[in-house]
Amino acid sequence: MKLAYRTYGTGKPMIILHGLFGQSDNWNTLAKQFAEKGYQVFTVDQRNHGLSDHSTEWDYEVMAKDLKEFIDEHKLKQAILLGHSMGGKTVLFFEWMFPGITGKIIIADIAARAYPPHHNEVLAALNSLDLDFVNTRKDAEVKLSEFIQDFGTKQFLLKNIYWKDASANKMDWRFNLHVITDNYDNIGVMVPEFRSNVPCFVIKGERSDYITKADEDDFRKRFNNVTFCTIPDAGHWVHAEKPKEFFDAVTGFLAM
Q1: For residue 36, what is the enclosing H or E element?
Q2: Quick check: pTM over 0.85?
């Protein structure tokens, strides 16, 4: 599948992959900052997200193949891969399936292990919202508030609403809610074991529980060259909550 993307700057290629329910423009500000440091940055919409096509196929293996097609199409050599959450796991699957292609790997707040379902509340909220009968973002926010209290989470999700037909007052989701709901278990799976010589940088938020000590040990088994960084007072959305600290940590790793 050809993926929708945005590109910034020139130089060594860097591909950024968003997480579940995200899209490429979530990374605009950081992408521009990386571009100013001499990188050609591609922020990519993974399948069933953003402006990329929708498909009934949705798991990490097909997303890793999409990434390989993107790299081949743009003739990128030794690209740096940066992925957050689901995007990070796509990167790990990519390294398992296509070893040695990348230059460096950056994983933001996700591990290779299997995760139990933990987006049930969000999925229930999204599926409760019938956009055939919701005509404004404010109405959508009120409905989501019945399930989700966190303001930041609601705003993150609402960014995915767009006018599918403004003349008919018809809104829709950018992401493929039906396929994501039906295939949600595919996103919690473990990455098969592999061993890699590619330098890997793992960033976690201090307040996040996505990466444990056991996960760090697992990263060391998979990567011969791995470095860890914890961003103080940050949660799972470490890049959005502490963008300066995240940027400094990544650029420090890339300079090594």
Answers
A1: helix 28-36
A2: yes
pLDDT in tens, 5-52: 999 999 999 999 999 999 999 999 999 999 999 999 999 999 999 999
Q: How confident is the model at residue 200 (pLDDT cuts 50, 70, 90)?
A: very high
Q: Using alpha carbons, select from 79, 87, 105 the residue that is nearest to residue 50.
A: 87
Find the distance separating the first CA and the last CA of the chain, reported in whole Å.
34
Longest alpha-carbon distance in the chain: 56
Domain spans, the chain:
5-115+189-254, 120-182
Catalytic center residues: 85, 236
| Residue 119, phi then psi, degrees to nearest 5 | -115, 20
Structure tokens belonging to residue 89 = 């796991």
Quick one: fold of 5-115+189-254?
A: Rossmann fold (3.40.50)
For 38, other C-beta atoms within 10 Å of its C-beta total 11
Sign of the dihedral defined by the CA atoms of residues 5, 11, 17, 23, in that order: negative
CA distance readout (Å), 137 to 12, 76, 177, 209 = 39, 39, 17, 31
The answer to whether the beta carbons of residues 52 and 119 sit under 8 Å apart is: no
Q: Which of 137, 128, 72 is nearest to 98 (CA)?
A: 72
